[in-house]
Amino acid sequence: MSGDQLEVRPHPDDPDPNGIIQNFPAALRHRARVAQPMVRKGWLENGPGADDRRGRDEFVPVAWEKALDLLGKELMRVRDGVGPGAIFGGSYGWSSAGRFHHAQSQIHRFLNVACGGYVRSVTSYSSGSSQVLIPHIIGDHEGLTKRNVSWEQIAEHTEIVVAFGGMALKNSMVAGGSVSRHVERSAMKRAAERGCNFVLVSPLLSDLPEEANAEWVSCVPGSDTALMLAIVHTLVVEGKHDRAFLERYTSGWPIFERYLLGITDGQPKDAAWAAPLTGVRADKIIVLARRLAGKRALIVVSHSLQRAEHGEQPVWIGMVLAAALGQIGLPGGGYGYALGAIAYYGRRYNAVPIPTLSQGRNGVSDFIPVARIADMLLEPGETYRFNGETRTYPDIKLVYWAGGNPFHHHQDLNRLRKAFARVDTLVVHELAWTATARHADIVLPCTMTLEREDIGANSNDPLLVPMHPVAPPYGEARDDYEIFADLAEYLGVREAFTQGRSVRQWLEHLYEQTRAGLSEQGVSAPSFGAFWAGEGLLLPQQPDDGGYLRAFRNDPEAHPLPTPSGRLEIYSQTIASFGEADCPGHPTWLGSVYVPTKDTPFVLISNQPKTRLHSQLDFGGHSIAFKHRGREVATMHPEDAAARGICEGNIIKLSNERGACLAGVMLSVGVRRGVIQLATGAWYDPADPNEEKPLCVHGNPNVLTRDIGTSRLAQGCTGQLTTVQVERFEGNLPVIRAFDPPV
Ligand SMILES: Nc1nc2c(c(=O)[nH]1)N[C@H]1C(S)=C(S)[C@@H](COP(=O)(O)OP(=O)(O)OC[C@H]3O[C@@H](n4cnc5c(=O)[nH]c(N)nc54)[C@H](O)[C@@H]3O)O[C@H]1N2
Ligand SMILES: Nc1nc2c(c(=O)[nH]1)N[C@H]1C(S)=C(S)[C@@H](COP(=O)(O)OP(=O)(O)OC[C@H]3O[C@@H](n4cnc5c(=O)[nH]c(N)nc54)[C@H](O)[C@@H]3O)O[C@H]1N2
Ligand SMILES: [Mo]
């Protein structure tokens, strides 16, 4: 089937379909797909070793047999000669829908079975700081994000929502695994119609939909901690904080209160103090605080706020604000961390487990915080701090990636190129010629989700879907599973990897896990055959009961939080004991690093793209349609543009000490002055890859972002914000080659 024969339709029951699926038709048979196994010329000729030609070398097509032979030998060389601790298999990335062909599960299972394990990565680019912080202060991260305040509760109960970083509908279009119904727009509409007030705190007006009818508090990026401190301060000095709640459910309030009031450092964190830091007038802050008191109030803090330096602080103070309001654990009230960021938040959890492929046992205990990959490759043997420990970076020889795109997700891409130049071998399974594939030594073409059979599911969506292929594999592409099965055979462990099952037999095996769960609940589930022939199976879901925070509120003695004190930790003795200056024992304003300078007068927001999932199918029709002259489009305020002689439709150049990229430009008064927004996901496209810091002609903001952890506590990704210069691009426009296969 060719792409133009393919028609993509949303699920018939979806009230608010997602345009991103329209990337599929043009992508299916696009020239950017990888058609056959390829080996980098320098690696083929000289064998494994550090090589700064990665990313600008030629590729040699080879037959599958040859590719697997080369790779099998190399895996044995590293595994037996150095040990599995020299293999980095973190392989971070979203890959695509489907529970069996989930690339992360496949690669991890393979490396465990065939190589004795690998150095893994922990946490995520999504929530690198909250995943480390929340267990110390609230408890279960999964429970906080996935079994807490739901959209149903908001529609019914909430009186006021303050969304720091917003809840943009573009974000809740997607969910890992799949989502059958998009409910966010209608929930906000119903709530607003009932009289619920929405307050959007963000530099971008588009972070809440029109249906929310929100009041916009435009704030300086990176200043939310100061704003929330000032709101709490106002509540306290006006006696509007819920003392009984703080007393019964939290620990450490008195220590924090002394900081808040300025007793410890001489600076009260009042509205007048916060106004110049946040760009929000003091009287507005005070009014907002008063409006929250005594209401069924929900404080939402988006993932984006913690994807920046000191990203732990807004997450922590968000909880403290919700606690000071006494709202945590009430229906539609309290703390909705990350609500709206992804479509699996704010919903009901399924009552039975969804199919999951077992990854086996990893014989290597070493790991890195996921966003520290370039540090690891550039500084083997160096020590770093993480969650109270001093750890040492391993010496990695072989990096193996399937289902992720570091040239999408990582910061400071020019530094990442240097990091990848250092390894002996970089292996990538890809369906398309991403920049990561272009920097690899061995590129193995894999199928995309339309080309294989699978089961679609997500633990927060009731629909279990049989996924049937709609097209044969592109070129010589194979399923990741098939590639790993053949490699396992080369390494003598095929049976252990495949357990003798075909793909269909695996699907049946995985389905049986869910069916067993259903039987246990007395629900009769169809046979696999009937499921496979059907339209999808609706799974029972858990009640919308507010999860562990509601249970804690109802009876804190019987249901203590899984924190050291069993309570909400406003002051964390554990974190204080780590002694990190960049993450003290209670939420603290640590200053902002995103202060405009003469050379970099703009704060760049590189948020999630509306027209695709990350970098995936950037060459698809929907993504391409929103580019300007083939380039990603940045948005800025018309007055900022006018001051620089920039008009809508121009090509602009964004730059700082780390790099530069081109972009189209759109003007909008919905962007705060001094801020420019350029979404992630345009494929890295260096004008001249021989340069140390080549211009990306296509608009990938990660040539500009800084590669540094959120703090020594969490070491999370800080890709969301940086500072840049913006100017009109004069001169000849370089051609875009991002989607042309390499020579
Ligand atoms: N500046 C900045 N950077 C950011 C962020 C930000 O806010 N600002 N956000 C970060 C966040 S939250 C995230 S989650 C990351 C996302 O980063 P990634 O998850 O790495 O991004 P994707 O583009 O989804 O990469 C998935 C890759 O897998 C490939 N793929 C799809 N299906 C398959 C398959 O079946 N098999 C194989 N082998 N490959 C497949 C796709 O072609 C694609 O190249 O980016 C982070 N980077
Ligand atoms: N369409 C689409 N949706 C996606 C994804 C995608 O690639 N495409 N990726 C998914 C993934 S993996 C994740 S983790 C989530 C990420 O969820 P988020 O990280 O929450 O999403 P972003 O779009 O990066 O950021 C949300 C908004 O935060 C605002 N913001 C940025 N900095 C600040 C600040 O300092 N203060 C305030 N108040 N606001 C700020 C920006 O205006 C931005 O639009 O999105 C998911 N949803
Ligand atoms: Mo993410």
UniProtKB/TrEMBL annotation:
Family membership, please give it: Belongs to the prokaryotic molybdopterin-containing oxidoreductase family.
Q: Which GO terms describe its biological process?
A: anaerobic respiration
> In the UniProt record, which is one GO cellular component term?
outer membrane-bounded periplasmic space
Signal peptide from the UniProt entry: none
Asked if the keyword Cell inner membrane belongs to this entry, the reply reads no
**Known cofactor(s):** Mo-bis(molybdopterin guanine dinucleotide)
* UniProt domain Molybdopterin oxidoreductase: residue ranges: 33-490
Stated name of the protein: Asp-tRNA(Asn)/Glu-tRNA(Gln) amidotransferase GatCAB subunit C
SUPFAM superfamilies in alphabetical order: ADC-like (SSF50692), Formate dehydrogenase/DMSO reductase, domains 1-3 (SSF53706)
Q: Which UniProt keywords apply?
A: Metal-binding, Molybdenum, Oxidoreductase, Transferase
One annotated GO molecular function: transferase activity
Molybdopterin dinucleotide-binding domain mapped to chain residues: 602-717
- Oxidoreductase is among the record's keywords: yes
One matching Pfam family, short form?
Answer: Molydop_binding
